[in-house]
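Review box. Two proteins, two foldings.
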Amino acid sequence: MLTEEALLKQPPEKYMDDEQLEFFKSLLLKQKMELVNSLKETNTNLQTQEREADENDRASLEEERWLELRIREREGKLISKIDEALHRIEDGSYGYCDETGEEIGVQRLLIRPTATLSIEAKQRRENIEKAYSDG
């Protein structure tokens, strides 16, 4: 199995070969497992807080619960993105920009393994969104 350091040293012609795909698949599965465990822990925390709360703690409990639910929602969305990335690994499209078909790049994928756009495509999209929101 490749290390991150070895991955970064590989020549461009190795981009998204079987070894690199296996590296990213393992990385994504590890992240997914951590998120699933975090979601389970959040559920347990919410249930424990409910039972232990008294009347004075209700307001702070509700705020904590709201924050935990927001985190849970965000983690759930990330799990969906990870599942989509795993599907792209299986269908051979992982690592390539959805808009241009160009390589996303190993460095970007190490930072955001669920990325579907190259940096350039992402910047173009953000510029368009900004132009429309500015009005």
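Next protein.
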Amino acid sequence: MAGSWTPDGFILDLDGTVYAGSRPIDGAAETIGYLRSRGKRVVFLSNRGNISRRMCRERLAAMGIPCEAEDIILTSSVVARYLREHEPDARVWVLGEQGLRDELALHGVRFAVRPQDADRLVVTLHETLTYAELNDAFRAVRAGARIIATNRDKTFPGEDGESIDVGAVLAALEHATGVAADVVVGKPSPAMARAALDRLGLPPERCLIVGDSPGSDIALGKRAGIRTALVLSGSVTREEAEAMAPAERPDWMLDSLADLRRLLEEMER
């Protein structure tokens, strides 16, 4: 692409890009350190909604990637901000884990005492989901709660392989209740792009988004006018990436985040 263009801001996906479960992707920490040494701005953008920014910051620090909590944009924090700004009086019932509850509480979101008292059902990834919890969520919607979801991803790249994500649970609730989620905040939504660009303090044309998901990361970049790099360390193979429709293809394709330094050096020649 683009002759002398080089990005000043980098929006990095987490699962499958920076790490896989508790294991960092080879070269990720070194690449992020290199970007920072060049004065580049870096934010992390993830559809994870079952963890808080504090939890994510601690995970990254353990991998040798220090950062401020404000540099981490998760669907848990974006959904919390949405509720605070647009529905401050809503009482919510959560189908999710403690990380989401922590982020909601940090933003002053109110919790319903019983499912039938909820104005909103917030749905996110729940890795220890029980039938009783799913049924409570079902009953909240039956009693009138509207559904807000962190994302619709079907799967995510875990440490031991591909794992089921929020989309399947959300589909089950929508099917059982006949009620569709009216708000989904995760990538590729404009809300996630705005949050990342606001933190970077840069316009979209000066940024590059790097991620492993064509449907989330690359689609977000296409919609927001942000150039894109797809890494093959997560959810797609090279064959799958090369079979993408021309309009959906990334601007660059990398084996992993470790190749980003080489790409940046090529841009600057």
